[in-house]
Amino acid sequence: MDLSLSTRPEGERTVVDVAGEIDVYTAPQLREQLVELVDSGRYDLVIDMERVEFLDSTGLGVLVGGLKRVRAHEGSLRLVCTQERILKIFRITGLTKVFPIHDSVADAVAATD
Amino acid sequence: MAEVELRIDPLTSHVRTARQVAVALARRAGVAPDVLDEVRLAVGEACGLAVALQRRDDDPEPVVLRFEDGDGLAVQVRGSTGLAVAQGEAAIQLLSAAAVADEDDDEALPAGAALAVLSELVPGLQVATGPAGPRFELRWPPG
């Protein structure tokens, strides 16, 4: 399955729903989406990864790039993920310390820390 | 013992094909079902790194993956990017330092992330570099 992306506003935040495979081929699409959101003034992002089937280090790079972009505007980037096989990649690369990772979109949208 | 060789042009879209072939062959070789995700990820990282290095240099040579099933699955991934001669940890450090991002891509993690994932997922990972290109050897036992 290729990558599919959709966005919706949730108050001041924007939820990016990602489904499919984020890899060396599709990651540029996700990057474009994040750049577009930040360029249009959406600095508080929640990325819902519950329907992501595959994530590689290139995808991680794009998420880290997105985090840098929103932080430049004092924004936030939160992830929603409960899939063990995806969480494992964040742990291996030490990125669980970098991203706030939530169990649900509701939880991420409500988070204030 | 049976062999499959896959030669791909260095296109990022082919990396996914390589992953799918790897998982199909791992399954056939009797690798445990709960390890197949690791095969998918590790082969993708090795192949993606070889492809990314060649794309950086506009090197059109194919990346070659050789799969051998017998006692589990053995995978060799060979690129053509000429590098200093090194093996093991030294080769990993050399590749980690290689900036593989496209020029308009200011945010790709360094290759270190790919190698961190590979080292973690593949216990007997062997990495070598040289003038003929990088070579990764990955092996999974039967389940």
Would you kindly provide a written description of the structure presented here, covering whatever features stand out?
The complex is a heterodimer of chains A (113) and B (143). By secondary structure, chain A is α/β, with parallel strands linked by helices. Chain A is 38% helix and 32% strand. Chain A is globular. Chain B is of the alpha+beta class. Helix content of chain B is 41%, strand content 24%. Chain B has helices at 12-28, 36-56, 88-97, 112-121; strands spanning 2-8, 63-70, 72-78, 86-87, 126-129, 135-140. A six-stranded antiparallel beta sheet of chain B has the order 1-2-3-6-5-4, with helices on one face. In chain B, a hairpin with a 1-residue loop joins strand 2 and strand 3. The model of chain B has no long low-confidence stretch (mean pLDDT 91). The chains are: A alpha/beta (113), B alpha+beta (143). Chain A binds chain B through residues 21, 23-25, 28, 31, 54, 56-58, 60-62, 64-65, 68, 85, 89, 92-93, and chain B through 12-13, 15-16, 19, 37, 40-41, 44-45, 48, 51-52, 105-109, 113-114, 116-117, 120-121.
Shape type of chain A:
globular
Please state the oligomeric state of the protein chains shown: heterodimer
Determine the fraction of residues in helical runs of chain A and give it as a percent range. 25-40%
Q: Compute the number of helices of chain B.
A: 4
Order of H and E elements of chain B:
EHHEEEHHEE
Number of helices of chain A: 4
Low confidence ranges of chain A: none
| Radius of gyration of chain A, CA atoms, in whole angstroms | 13 Å
- Helix % of chain B is 40-55%
**Strand order of the biggest β-sheet of chain B:** 1-2-3-6-5-4
Give the biggest beta sheet of chain A. Answer: 5 strands, mixed
Biggest sheet character of chain B: 6 strands, antiparallel
Q: What is the structural class of chain B?
A: alpha+beta
Element order of chain A: H for helix, E for strand: EEHEHEHEH
